[in-house]
Design a protein that fits this description.
Layout lengths: L9 E5 L4 H11 L3 E6 L13 E3 L5 E3 H4 L5 E5 L5 H10 L5 E4 L5 H4 L4 H7 L4 E6 L16 H7 L2 H5 L14 H24 L3 E6 H8 L1 H8 L13 E6 L4 E6 L2 H10 L14 H6 L1 H12 L4 H10 L3 E4 L3 H6 L1 H5 L3 E4 L9 E4 L23 H9 L3 H10 L4
């Protein structure tokens, strides 16, 4: 097998939940070695999420942890203890990247912020992921931030909120976490390239709010250009859900020639010359007429078959798949986009987690290693990286600095 692209890159991750763990899992899938630092007794907070399975010791391992921590080693260190802090600073020079996703300023208060780590390892690339960033003052610095908080603040929720209705929260899962993670990975790769050229490390500071403003680009961009629809009114185009014989599908049409194709497919060629549908605004005004025609046309088909027919006509459409349909989908299977994790608590059916969406012609695929049990690699890492013998490790454990 050829080396993976990030083979030789080493990551020390002081991480919790999803925004940073997703990023470091992706680095691991690309070949980086990732050592995850967790609290020695309760571990990453994601281990306590629901639903959960039991590890071999009978401890809960939550779904959030399981889907974000493949290909990592776990060491249990109490960062609030002097000895634990010292261990991290001693370990840091052995790694290319040190990263954390605590609340802004938390690592600095522990003596493990960028300046502290850079003093021990000047060439370090240090990544922080937080709600509102670490390098400038924000009016929201004191706020705790989960994915939905950043998503709401980006304008996305108001953009899609139906009139008179509350916003739909977390409509696409943890976009605020995963989207932010992707920007974190981009920043790290750029910083690695910069260090290759200059030998200099640097601080990469990623805010969830910033990331979601970028993801919600249409909200502010369209507003600035005078397009200001009421919440839930939609853009002047067809971007709607329709019913088939066995479920839902979506159709996106934003150009006149695409609308003409839809009209012909539905048996309503006369719509092309109908004043009601002469403009994109007219499509929206008469969307109920269009919806009725699409629903009637698709009523004898499955949502997948309807989308095959639409695609053949040059119309963008997609079936609204259920979880079971995604699991059974031939594309998902062919591209290895679901990874089974064998359970250790007597349940036969495996836990399914998303696979690696990055496919590269010069990168051989490799199977994921299961997420680590809490503190599974503590002794091995401390012995290998710092040369600590069994007596020294036992003393740290007795002091509560490690798990």
């Amino acid at each position: 097998m050829s080396d993976l692209p990030l083979s030789g890159v080493r990551v020390l991750a002081l991480e919790q939940m999803q925004a940073l763990p997703f990023a470091t899992q992706l680095l691991g899938r690309l070949g980086a070695e990732v050592v995850k630092v967790e609290h020695p007794t309760h571990g990453d907070l994601g281990r306590g999420s629901q639903p959960a399975m039991k590890d071999p010791e009978g401890r809960n391992v939550g779904a959030t942890f399981l889907r974000n921590n493949a290909n990592k080693q776990s060491i249990g260190i109490d960062l609030k203890s002097d000895a634990g802090r010292r261990l991290v600073l001693d370990l840091a020079p052995r790694f290319d990247i040190v990263c954390e996703n605590s609340k802004a300023g938390a690592m600095s208060r522990l003596g493990l912020g960028y300046d502290d780590v850079a003093a021990a390892h000047p060439a370090v690339i240090y990544l922080s992921i937080s709600g509102f960033g670490n390098t400038i003052e924000s009016p929201y610095d004191s706020w705790p931030a989960y994915a939905a908080v950043a998503e709401a603040m980006s304008g996305l929720y108001e953009w899609k909120r139906a009139p008179g209705q509350p916003p739909a929260v977390s409509p696409v899962g943890a976009l605020g976490d995963i989207g932010t993670a992707m920007f974190g990975v981009v920043g790290l790769l750029a910083a690695l390239r910069h260090r290759d050229r200059t030998g200099e490390g640097q601080y990469v500071d990623i805010a969830m709010f910033d990331s979601m403003v970028a993801f919600a680009d249409v909200v502010t961009n369209y507003w600035s250009m005078g397009m200001r629809p009421e919440p839930g009114a939609g853009l002047p185009m067809i971007l709607d859900g329709f019913e088939s014989g066995d479920g839902w599908l979506i159709i996106q049409i934003g150009r006149e020639h695409e609308f003409a194709r839809l009209a012909e497919l539905l048996g309503h060629g006369e719509w092309v010359d109908d004043e009601r549908f002469a403009t994109r605004a007219g499509w929206r005004e008469h969307i109920d007429t269009i919806r009725t025609a699409v629903n009637e046309w698709a009523s004898s088909m499955s949502n997948v078959d309807a989308c095959h027919a639409l695609a053949a006509a040059g119309i963008a459409a997609g079936p609204v798949l259920s979880a079971q349909q995604v699991i059974d989908d031939p594309h998902v299977a062919a591209r290895d986009m679901l990874v089974p994790i064998e359970r250790t608590d007597g349940v036969d059916e495996p836990v399914l987690t998303p696979g690696n969406p990055i496919k590269m012609s010069a990168m051989d695929a490799r199977p994921d290693q299961r997420p680590p049990w809490l503190g599974e690699h503590t002794d091995d890492v401390l012995s290998r990286e710092l040369g600590l013998d069994a007596a020294a490790i036992d003393a740290l454990r007795a002091d509560g600095a490690i798990g």
